[in-house]
Write a structure and sequence with these properties.
Distance between the termini: 56 Å
Structural class: alpha+beta
CATH class of one domain: Alpha Beta
Number of strands: 2
CATH superfamily of one domain: Lrp/AsnC effector binding domain/regulation of amino acid metabolism (RAM) domain
Helix content: 25-40%
Order of helices and strands: HEEH
Radius of gyration: 16 Å
Low-confidence stretches: none
Strand order of the largest sheet: 1-2
CATH architecture of one domain: 2-Layer Sandwich
Number of helices: 2
């Protein structure tokens, strides 16, 4: 069973929409962060791509409506100061 979870995570990680995928413990076996253009694109991804994977028996989504803080490097223009 664990081998199937890892295979599913690896398969999902190759989807261009997936920014992060990992195997977890607890009620969920896999967590993934996906980036979609809009709600329709997210719906297509969930129904056509994820729904087509036999190993997926159920899924739960939590769309991010607004990002308050993000970590990571800033692009060079962010350091240029006020325009």
């Amino acid at each position: 069973m664990q081998h199937r979870h890892r295979q599913l995570a690896e398969r999902a990680a190759h989807h261009p929409e997936v920014a992060f995928a990992g195997v977890t413990t607890g009620p969920s076996n896999l967590v993934a962060e996906v980036v979609c253009r809009d709600n329709a694109d997210l719906c297509r991804y969930l129904t056509e791509r994820v729904g087509a994977l036999e190993a997926v028996l159920s899924m739960e989504t939590a769309p991010v409506l607004r990002t308050m803080k993000r970590t990571g490097a800033l692009p060079p223009q962010a350091y240029a100061g006020p325009a």
